[in-house]
Structures are given as structure tokens and as C-alpha cells.
């Protein structure tokens, strides 16, 4: 992801398949957005990857509908924050996992709509009991997962009937971890989410992602992340 000025001086941000860490990039117009005048270019550089991933996962692949329930792992991470913002804008019930009290406090300040029951622990599988308890044993409609191994299995068990599981971590996909086919007796769907696949020829889903991000910026759902800026001599 990158942000900068195009040849006519417009402030833009965008995505590239590679080589984005440069002073000059050869950008494709399909993967560019205008930067709102109230944002700095540093702020804009924090937006494209996380919000494109979250919209692609939740809305395009997961078909999230208003009022559904969602479990978002690692909520204080970039994609987590983007996903929480999108889910709350659709009046969804959000559960999220965090690894520390500081991260929970940060998210509560950023998203006042989150209550004490919205939070569970991402360091172990205790979130499964928390989610099942607070959904009267039904589970959630969507899981946005980035946890691995036994936590992935626990996350699968959090899915309600007709639920959608959105896997954005690559660990278990790369390791060919077995899932267990009985899971699909609940009429659920499992999606492997790879943002780089959107750059492939013939992928029709990109237009939808691009439009969602554009609308999200206009409506104020999309907000820059809190960032740390490194000088160029600190790149390594």
C-alpha cells in the first residue's frame, strides 16, 4: 500500500502487487482512491490494505448483513480495527479477542459501542466459552479468523448454523491443517481470504471491494489507523 501525489497533484492512496516501498510507483487506476482533504498522506498510507481486506472478507465473501453477529480475532490489529468499524456501521453484534488490557482499553476508547461482553482473550481458547455463553449456545454468524492451530478449531466451533468462516491467517492454510468435514453439517461456508488474489486477471470481485472502500470513506466508516512513522534511515 502507498499514498502520494499523482502527476496532476491529486492526493491518492492505493495498492500494488509488489514494490510499493518506493519514491515513485506505477499505479493502476483500478487500485487507487482519492485521499480526503482532512487526512495527511501518512494517515492515508494506513488505510488501503486493512480496509480492503476487511471489506473483501466480511462483505464480499462473507455477505455480512445488518444485525448479524461477528467474532473478530485480534481486534486491536489493523484488519481487526477496520473489521470492527465496518461491522458496527452495519449494526452488527461484535465479539472481539485481544491479548492485553491495554489493547482492550484502546478499542473501548476508539469504539464506545463495544461493551464488556464484546471482549474475550486471544491468548488461549477461552473465547469459545465466552462466545457460546453470550449467544445462548448458538454461536456467531461470521468469524474473521487470524488465529492458528487449536484456536482455529475453537473458532470453528463458535460458528452458528449457516455461518461463514473467513480465514485470513496463512499458517493453517500453508500447513494443510485438516478441518473435519462434519463441520459442514451445520450448512456453513469456509473462505480462504487472500488479498493478493484480487490482483489476478479475471477476478471480478475487485470492483465491489473498491466501491465499498470509496463509500466507506465518504460515509466516515473508514478512518485512518494510529500509526508510527519511521524516517527513511530507519527503514530496516
UniProtKB/TrEMBL annotation:
One of its GO terms (molecular function) is oxidoreductase activity. Keywords: Fatty acid biosynthesis, Fatty acid metabolism, Lipid biosynthesis, Lipid metabolism, Multifunctional enzyme, NADP, Oxidoreductase, Phosphopantetheine, Phosphoprotein, Transferase. Gene3D superfamilies: Medium-chain alcohol dehydrogenases, catalytic domain. The keyword Iron does not apply. It comes from Ctenopharyngodon idella (Grass carp). Residues 1-236 form the Enoyl reductase (ER) domain. This is Fatty acid synthase. Pfam families: ADH_zinc_N (PF00107). SMART domains: PKS_ER. One of its GO terms (biological process) is fatty acid biosynthetic process. One of its GO terms (cellular component) is cytoplasm.
